[in-house]
Amino acid sequence: MTRHLLIACAMIASGLGFASPALAQSQGDWTLGFGIANVNPKSDNGDLAGGTVPTDIDDSTRPTLTFEYFIRDNLGIEVLAALPFKHSIESNGAEIGTVKQLPPVISLQYHFDATPQLKPFIGVGVNFAGFWDADAKGPLDGNELRVKNSWGLAAHLGADYWINDNSAIRADLRWIDINSDVELNGVDIGEVDVDPTVIGVSYIRRF
User: Fold this and answer.
1) Which residues contact 41 (CB under 8 A, 6 or more apart)?
2) 112-159, pLDDT tens digit by residue?
3) Comparing C-alpha atoms, which of 182, 158, 180 is closest to residue 170?
4) What is the spatial distance between Cα 120 and Cα 161, in angstroms, rounded to a whole number?
5) How far apart are CA 8 and CA 155, in angstroms?
6) Coil, strand or helix: which one is 195?
7) Of 37, 130, 136, 187, which alpha carbon lies 20 to 30 A from 23's?
8) How many other C-beta atoms lie within 10 A of the C-beta of residue 27?
């Protein structure tokens, strides 16, 4: 599924250069989106404890909610929210902990009029990654694990296909800069570079 969505987003992006005149998404419009997203951290998320504990963070899929308000024709401000994502933290194939996180993102987005139905968009924004309920497991069981919150930039790419004047299906791809310090029993043991790709599909409703 991840590979197919990536290919779809790449095809959407390649179509931006072939845009033709169409009706704009107007200033004052706003949309709600209901969907599902997969947060897939990059491989090799760093080495903890002085390089002795290589870490890998597993992916997680949850429902999402987006709100976008158009401050100009085709230009909107979007807020991304979701149910909490839960990730497994592994080292050398063994689970050493779990953690929950929310990565709300605020983005400024430009929507292109490729056709009357197809509206590709690109965006840049800011992310706050909030981590909580970290739980040490396996060889770390019984210790206190903490993953600290972080701020970072985010990029967004996707397209809406409008079924009618008020309803669309969206496929999108995000990259989020998430780098978080990790503590064990109150002692800083290093940093994990999560930097996930977020792949989603959703239903968009315009008001």
Assistant:
1) 56, 57, 58, 59, 87, 194, 195, 196
2) 998 989 999 999 999 999 999 999 998 888 899 999 999 999 999 999
3) 158
4) 8
5) 17
6) coil
7) 37
8) 13
**Single pTM value for the model:** 0.83
Question: What are the tokens at 59?
Answer: 């992916």
Tokens encoding 116: 């009357």
Residue 9 belongs to what H/E stretch?
helix 2-14
Which of the 8 DSSP states describes residue 25?
Answer: P
Q: Report yes or no: 170 and 204 within 8 Å, Cβ to Cβ.
A: yes
For 9, 25, 181, the CA distances from 114, given in Å and listed in that order, are 14, 12, 42
Tell me the C-alpha to C-alpha distance, in Å, between residue 45 and each of 82, 94, 119. Answer: 23, 15, 35
Q: Is domain 2-206 annotated with CATH 3.10.129.10?
A: no
Is the separation of the CB atoms in 23 and 113 below 8 Å? Answer: yes
Return d(Cα 46, Cα 95) in angstroms, integer.
15
Kindly report, residue by residue over 92-102, the tens digit of the pLDDT: 888 999 999 99
Name the residue ranges covered by the structural domains of the chain: 2-206
**CB-based contact 100:112 (threshold 8 Å):** no
User: In what helix (H) or strand (E) does residue 6 lie, and over which residues does it extend?
Assistant: helix 2-14
